[in-house]
Design goal:
224 residues, Arc Repressor Mutant, subunit A, Four Helix Bundle (Hemerythrin (Met), subunit A), 3-stranded antiparallel β-sheet, 9 helices, elongated
């Protein structure tokens, strides 16, 4: 019979394997359309097949994995229609988070956004994408509504994969620096509690991101 510590450790292992596989999918280390197998993932993460199978089933529910009967699994290709829906959800949720942060957050909480005025020393795209994600999640947290913040964070996390796939050229074209400037302007508006300006800035920020991504979603191996 398992004791409490064994159950706890088993849960931690399952969560860890799930987190690692999910991160690999979002970062496109496991590329869209790639075939994957339980045995390979178990060996890669030095675990049994049980936590791997559990992780893959959770990822199937999230729409990141497809089960191929008698053939294993496949990382779900990026669908143009899914991308459109994600952007629609992101716009609705992030605008709501911005408005609520302005109305409800303390000055101290909003001052914490200053840490995102610079992307810092980002050695590559992966680090920059992490900075970008953390900035948008920080606004969601500042909104002070746990359910709204969780919904927004789940959508925001999905955009890592789109950035890695569709916007990998931004760091070589100076666009990353431009986006940091946009973040700074949004921080100014939020800290100034200017709902009108902040609403316009976040709307334009997301729409410009959508335009960039759709401009490069033309690679057949990536787009479903």
């Amino acid at each position: 019979m398992l004791d409490d510590s064994s159950i706890t450790n088993g849960g931690l292992i399952r969560d860890s394997v799930y987190d690692k596989i999910r991160a690999d999918i979002l970062a496109c280390t496991l590329a869209p359309g790639a075939r994957i197998h339980e045995n390979d993932l178990a060996a890669r993460h030095d675990v049994s097949k049980s936590p791997v199978r559990d992780a893959l089933l959770r990822l199937e529910v999230e729409g990141l994995i497809e089960v191929l009967p008698r053939k294993g699994y496949r990382v779900r290709p990026i669908s143009v229609s899914d991308v459109g829906e994600l952007y629609e959800m992101r716009l609705l949720l992030e605008k709501a988070c911005v408005r609520r942060a302005i109305a409800e957050a303390t000055d101290e909480t909003l001052a914490g956004l200053d840490s995102f005025r610079s992307a810092g020393d980002r050695g590559g795209l992966a680090e920059w994408v992490r900075y970008n994600r953390q900035f948008h999640r920080a606004i969601a947290i500042a909104a002070g509504n746990a359910r709204l913040g969780k919904a927004a964070a789940e959508v925001i996390d999905q955009f890592d994969r789109l950035t890695f796939v569709g916007v990998a050229h931004i760091t070589s074209e100076g666009a990353a620096e431009k986006l940091v400037v946009e973040h700074g302007a949004l921080i100014d508006a939020i800290q100034g509690r200017d709902k009108g300006r902040a609403g316009r800035l976040i709307t334009d920020h997301i729409k410009q991101s959508r335009k960039r991504v759709f401009a490069v979603l033309a690679d057949p191996p990536i787009v479903d």
